[in-house]
């Protein structure tokens, strides 16, 4: 009944000079939280059968976020020849607990005595160290989109933006599919966990399923904007007269509530 379409775009930049030799780049493979204050960045060199570069530089910058706190670690720079590609990870310990880290990995693979190179700038990922107890390493929290206040003729779509998330929100939108009307923006509120953005849909038919396109656009530091799309299906309740007729079946009108609870858990 609902689906989340995640537009996960890669915004790193690859530049290269005209080459005859085979050159390709090392890849960021994973970033793993170790405990509440440390994480490990892992990368992999390309197989020598496809990478004849003999001077590879890797540069890693780690941006730290904890609510309004900001710090930068690095750049951590490495130089490799074709024969000493021995280091494939960086473990960094921090002073903050359960903080967010935006890890940016860049490399430049060159063929000595030529002008050939393949450079990858800023392959960046957002990660989070574990909870203080280290019982959970849940990763970054995510925006939730839920439906509430469902009546026979209206409902509200609410974006819950986690206040600890270091992304900068750029745009929110909620619109009935097939170019239907957009929701009316209601007052934005905030509690200890979320910035709460409601969009009201009115003039709807009773007992009807509506699909709503929702989108959240955000960026971080100077990265290109990313958009998360999701489609929510909300079913309006029975009109008052109908409700009297088949009151005992009204349990089914809880369906959208169940769907939105499920979304909150996600
Ligand atoms: C913390 O939790 C992670 C993931 O569950 C685990 O891999 C790691 O060994 C734990 N570290 C400590 C110090 O307990
Ligand atoms: C987390 O792991 C790092 C790296 O192994 C270590 O230096 C640090 O003491 C650990 N911190 C905690 C709180 O376990
Ligand atoms: C590198 O590629 C060659 C040829 O495709 C293959 O035989 C070899 O197993 C690869 N080595 C690694 C480490 O993947
Ligand atoms: C590390 O590499 C980056 C990117 O190549 C460069 O801008 C910076 O000056 C280097 N820093 C050091 C200390 O070598
Ligand atoms: C690999 O060799 C190059 C050139 O000799 C040297 O500059 C670099 O420090 C070495 N890197 C490692 C990780 O040993
Ligand atoms: C990569 O290295 C080559 C050779 O040193 C240099 O000409 C080129 O400007 C570098 N590219 C980037 C993006 O750093
Ligand atoms: C904040 O509001 C959301 C949406 O109403 C709710 O789910 C959440 O439990 C609230 N959190 C706190 C800490 O009040």
Q: Going across the major beta sheet, what is the strand order? A: 2-9-8-5-6
Number of helical segments? 2
Which ligands appear in the coordinates? 2-acetamido-2-deoxy-beta-D-glucopyranose
Low-confidence stretches: 1-9, 246-266
How far is the first residue's CA from the last residue's CA? 14 Å
Overall average residue pLDDT: 87
Rg of Cα set: 24 Å
What class, by secondary structure content?
A: mainly beta
Order of helices and strands: EEEEEEEEEEEEEEEEEHH
Give a short account of the largest sheet: 5 strands, antiparallel
Task: Name the overall outline.
Answer: elongated
What share of residues is helical?
A: under 10%
Q: Based on DSSP secondary structure assignment, what is the total number of beta strands?
A: 17
How much beta, percentage-wise? over 45%
Can you walk through the features of this model?
The longest helix is centred in the last third of the chain and has 11 residues, at 255-265. The chain is elongated, with a radius of gyration of 24 Å. The chain contains 2 helices and 17 strands. Helices cover 6% and strands 49% of the residues. It has 266 residues and is mainly β. The site of one 2-acetamido-2-deoxy-beta-D-glucopyranose has 4 residues, from loops.
Task: State the main characteristics.
266 residues, 2 helices, 49% strand, binds 2-acetamido-2-deoxy-beta-D-glucopyranose, mainly beta, 5-stranded antiparallel β-sheet, disordered N terminus
